[in-house]
Structure formats: structure tokens, C-alpha cells
Amino acid sequence: MADLVITKCGASTLMEILLLKKIPLINSYLWEQEKGNLDYVVKNKLGFYIKNSSLVAENISNLIADAKITLDLESNVISKGLRNGLEDVAAFIHQTSFCS
User: Fold this and answer.
1) Which pTM does this prediction carry?
2) Are 46 and 80 in contact (CB under 8 A)?
3) pLDDT per residue as tens digits for the range 34-84
4) What's the DSSP call for residue 97?
5) What is the spatial distance between Cα 97 and Cα 94, in angstroms, rounded to a whole number?
6) Rounded to whole angstroms, how far apart are CA atoms 90 and 23?
7) Domain span at residue 75?
8) Distance in angstroms (rounded) separating the CA atoms of residues 41 and 14
9) Domains in the chain, number
10) Residues 3-39: tens digit of each pLDDT
């Protein structure tokens, strides 16, 4: 139901957010372990990193006030073509000799 999600920068959480075509607003990450996730989101303009939690509300207000920012981010998310690979994995497993 949300248009954006305030989150930590875990890989699984980020992928769930992006697969739902939502905008991640990242407020923290674990150095080294999640830094690449943060860099991916910021570099590809898929969401925001706001280090100072006192600025989160202000940034959300800016998104609400300027629909173009939100539309641009959503367009960037869609352009990545991210998808859930469950069906492909299940088909592969089913086609192997282990299931025959």
C-alpha cells in the first residue's frame, strides 16, 4: 500500500521493495556488508539515502510536493526489469533428473 519504504539497506529487503516497484528511502546500512546495496540504489537513482534521520520527514514532504521526482524514481525501478525468479528456479528443479 505504500509508495515508498523507509528501510535499512539489506539485500533481501531492498529487492522486495524494488520488485514491488516501490521507492526505498534508506536511513542506515551495515558498512561493507550492505554498502554495495546502497551504492546500487543511489547510482541507479532507484531511491534515496538519508543519513540524518531528522531529515526523513522533510524529504518525504519534498516527494509529496513534487510528483515528478516520484515518477522518475518509479520509472528507473521499472527500467531495471527486476523480477522474481521463483518460476525459473522451480522449472529448472523440475527438469532435473532429481525430480524425474
Assistant:
1) 0.72
2) yes
3) 898 899 889 988 888 988 888 888 888 888 888 888 888 888 888 888 888
4) G
5) 8
6) 29
7) 4-99
8) 9
9) 1
10) 788 888 888 888 888 888 888 989 888 888 889 889 9
